[in-house]
């Protein structure tokens, strides 16, 4: 989903921490995008109804819901042009090969702690790849 004059691309923030969700959402809004925050258990429905252009995952690698989300994201990316949604993972490691089942769907890994200086360039990079600038 690309932006139009009236509607900015949607970003779905998935995580268990309400505080981290608020922090990430504010960073997303600073870039000029709309953010929706969901728990991992409710994320599957949000992926279907919102069809976001960017998904930001704030999950631990061992989170059991993470494997299901990675599989759903893999299927969505296979069905849509430009491998959308783009996926940004917030993690303690910046090596996507250390994330089980995540290598095929993660575009960028952003190291914790979450800061504007780390997350904003990642969001801008996937937007540029998606063609949201232009």
UniProtKB/TrEMBL annotation:
Natural source organism: Nitratireductor arenosus
Residues with PTM 4-aspartylphosphate: 58
Keyword match Phosphoprotein: yes
Protein name as annotated: Response regulator
Domain of life of the source: Bacteria
Hydrolase in keyword set: no
Sequence ranges assigned to domain Response regulatory in this UniProt record: 10-127
One of the GO BP terms on file: phosphorelay signal transduction system
Keywords from the named record: Phosphoprotein
InterPro entries, per database record: CheY-like_superfamily (IPR011006), Sig_transdc_resp-reg_receiver (IPR001789)
